[in-house]
Write a structure and sequence with these properties.
Blueprint: E1 2-7, H1 10-13, H2 17-22, H3 27-36, E2 43-48, H4 58-61, E3 66-70, H5 80-92, E4 95-99, H6 106-112, E5 119-130, E6 144-154, E7 164-171, E8 176-185, E9 188-193, H7 206-219, H8 237-243
Parallel strand pairs: 1-2, 1-3, 3-4, 4-9
Antiparallel strand pairs: 5-6, 5-7, 7-8, 8-9
Helix pairs in contact: 5-6
The structure holds zinc ion (ZN).
């Protein structure tokens, strides 16, 4: 499995201390450490906004089975041309995990087709409930767990109706959020997961790490669609069958 982890890396580049305290090597490398726990069969690449072609030239994208995405301030700096390439590749089968503030990414808006809008508030306390315990992404996760301090994201979350809601976040200001949702688009599987604000420690929580690893395995393609288009049927299957009789 080839996993590419993309991070806008803006706060890290600007040496924002509160972010570097939590992610000294950048959020992409924090997430890389999580995915590395899946073992040697996983080949991991990291990519950031600051790199040539934002680190996602064709030779990287075309080899990627799972793309993990974290963006916040830099959504609009992601070139439309690359969004279109990712969209096409997801439709062909590439798995996509959208983390935390990626709810406003061009990827979510383009691939899912809604605004990704929500309401938010800093520094609340979150408990996460597993509301779909038989789903592969929920394996090893208890009925509920304390996440601790996390940014509140709250309903209404403007997403298309998910194939599955796996996790529900409850916040101590009284609000709730569909914090783990899946969709399929074409051959591609998509998982959105809410924890992971840049100054919080959610990515170090054992259950969050397990969920991201489970998600990576779940979105990993089981099949790719090779060709798009609508070719004319020149010879029918029945003609072939009869010719072979
Ligand atoms: Zn945030």
């Amino acid at each position: 499995m080839n996993v590419t982890i993309w991070n806008e890396n803006i706060d890290e580049t600007n040496q924002v201390e509160k972010v570097l305290e939590v992610h000294p090597h950048g959020i992409h490398n924090t997430v890389k450490d999580i995915i590395a726990e899946l073992g040697d069969d996983v080949h991991i690449t990291t990519a950031t906004l600051q790199e040539e072609q934002i680190g996602l030239p064709d030779e990287v994208l075309n080899q990627t089975d799972v793309l993990i995405w974290w963006s916040h301030k830099g959504h609009d700096q992601v070139p439309d041309e690359i969004v279109a390439k990712i969209h096409h590749r997801v439709l062909a089968g590439m798995g996509l995990i959208l983390l935390h503030s990626s709810h406003y990414s061009k990827l979510l808006k383009t691939i899912l087709g809604t605004t990704g809008d929500l309401q938010w508030r800093d520094d609340t306390y979150e408990r996460i409930f597993c509301v779909n315990p038989t789903h592969p992404i929920a394996q090893g996760i208890p009925e509920n767990f304390e996440l601790g301090v996390e940014e509140c994201y709250t309903e209404y979350f403007d997403i298309p109706k998910p194939d599955d809601v796996i996790f529900l976040g409850w916040f101590d200001i009284g609000n709730v959020f569909r914090s783990g949702c899946t969709w399929t688009r074409g051959y591609g599987k998509i998982f959105y997961f809410q924890p992971g604000h840049e100054t919080n420690h959610s990515f170090f929580h054992p259950h969050v790490r397990q969920i991201i690893k489970n998600g990576c395995k779940w979105v990993c393609p089981t099949a790719y669609k090779e060709n798009f288009g609508a070719p004319h049927i020149d010879v029918t299957l029945e003609e072939i069958r009869k010719a072979n009789q």
